[in-house]
Amino acid sequence: MSLSAAHSSDMSSRRRRPAEQMHDLPSESELKLDHNPEQIHDQLSRDSMDTLSSHLSICPALCTTKCMPEHTCPNHRACDDSWEEIKRKRTIRAENEVEANKLVNNYRFGFRKWKSHVTARPFEVRSEVVKELYSELNVIKPHPGRLITCGNIVYVLLFGWWLSLAYLFIGLLMFLTITGVPHGKLCWKLSCYFLWPFGKSIHEVGNPMRRCCEQAPDCACNIDGTEDISPILLPSPTEVAIPERPGRPLHTPYWHRFSTYVWLLLGYPPLVVIHFLACFLSWILVFTIPVFKMNARTLRIILLLAPEDVSVSTCSERKHPVYETRALLCCYHAANWYYYKYTVDGINVFAVNLLPLVIVAIVIGYIDRENQFASSNVKFAIAICSIIPLSYYIGMGIASISAQSNFAVGAVVNATFGSITELTFYITALLRGHREAKPCLQEVVKAALTGTLLGCILFIPGICMIIGGLRHSEQRFNSRSTGVSSALLFISVGGVFAPTLFSKAYGNLVCDACTNSPGGNGTNSSLFVCHNCHYDLSNGTLFHNHVEPLVYTVCALLPAAYIIGLIFTLKTHSHIYDIQVGEGQVTGQPGAVVHWSRWRSLLILIMATVLTSACADLATEHIQPILNQPNISQYFIGVTVLAMIPEIPEIVNGIQFALQNNISLSLEVGSCIAVQVCMLQIPILVLFNACYDVGFVLLFSDIHLWASIFSVILVNYIFMDGKSDYFQGTALVVVYLILLALYFFAPSPPGC
Q1: What is the value of pTM for the model shown?
Q2: Residue 449: band (very low, low, confident or very high) from pLDDT cuts 50, 70, 90
Q3: Strands 579-586 and 347-348, how do they pair?
Q4: So what's the pLDDT on residue 640?
């Protein structure tokens, strides 16, 4: 075997390696090749050295971190070509074309990063852990493992004892009716079952269509309850007429008995209430969804069966069943930590659980005007928290439309709806502050804008670096693509704070309250102590002729820079990201089953926007008691509660990307929001103020100015080397917390 042949074989194997390594990743729909050039090149060198070590001549270029000059190694060209190919090419794998478009959009500048799937994934290709989440609890496992777990013990404390007690009392009631004795016996059996249901099973016995298994052990009956796949034209062995055993006499049909209606009138209604309460509590807790399934299945199926057809037994007692049975309920664990992944029609279970909060906020906010049932503090908390699920639905709708459309439509949708949650709150607050003559709300809006900027460039990348670094030690990202976002951040911050710097350079410092105090040290000179000093903009010449035109100029240039950034990254220099779907990487069928169609996504976007406006109006209406707290600065409320709560879905997305060793998307999550705040949201607010004067002036206080500039410089320094670990993330989070402490102890802004 020649050296060139070995080298060629090794190079071809390396080209195939990314596709082979795809199946080892935790998610089938993420990047299959991490863009870390040094690590890839080192691995390439090690693989080449191992392959060629058996030969006499080894190219020294393959043993170093950098290829030697071309005249030194004849195979330098092949090494360099392979290195460039691996360095620049990142191929993704997805189940279908729509999902592939969503993954590609995640790497495009200006597109909202979305982790969840927008299409239905085939159940048969899911992992066993995910299949367990969607199980109907009717499968008997041969080896369930340990049954005494923390989750099962918590079940007994939270649910088991009172469910068992309820069945005990209902059973006693049915015994008193005489005719309901069979149902009373069933209730007592279920009382023992619900006290500790783990390892026990409930079966339906005596199916009249199939009794052959009693006398024919080798019969082809479908004992496990799965679907019968017998040929249609051949007689099924399960339809053979077998006489009844003496031990199971024929009964009156269940719905023709008097005892059935006694049960439905006296025993079933209280159990409906009890099981509904258990279902509600277990669903809200999310991780106890198996308890929800157990109660729902009992209420819907088991309690409506004839008592003699319900058998409760342990797994060991079901080894040799006498009658052909069907498993109805079999639960081994009451809690599963992986239920945070559970979805309903593609919607995460946490977003489903928080959606009723929107209805509660609107009902108590617009009906209880006099605060008879809830205080303003409670209404504000409910209203601001209800924005979290609405922000999730808006993100899901944007991702669904973008994945089913071309990149131009996706860019427009992301630009219009990507900031709709924040803009709705800001405009609502400015309108209310203008109507009620509360200039403090304008300062709160500016604090929220700055808080969103600081949180997106410090906290979101920092927390993602910490969590990702703890799991993957060191993570690498595409420093060139991150450099585009960093450059736009510099442009954004420079443009947004340019009018503030201009006013400080040419404005007059004015103080509201100055007092004359005698000088110390026995001197006759007096000292002036002034408060609430600010730069005077009442001078019409300065503001109208200089500051205001500068504000409009900046607000026209910032969106233009954003559009240029879109053209640069999406058209002329798209190779910076170079994300593509390789041949054979779309593994599903061409017709993907999307969770939300384009029209449904658009309808949900509009409805979520309207509901967000209502919740934002309620939050601004009831925020005044929060702002009047003497020990908390209004700055702190703006930069924390109002700024970061709507971004919670984005924080979750960033953390999930970091856990899957895709720190690039985690960093882009925060950068994308920060750029949109400066280049889209603030110009839109200035445009709105120009059309309808609400008193919004693009002049920030000193604390906002220096905190933002320092944060942008720090982030660009951290991102310089293209590597991240938990130490760098800790540095960002600590700086963010220091700035929060700065805002917490800051004096109240003017007008508050």
Answers
A1: 0.75
A2: very high
A3: unpaired
A4: 92
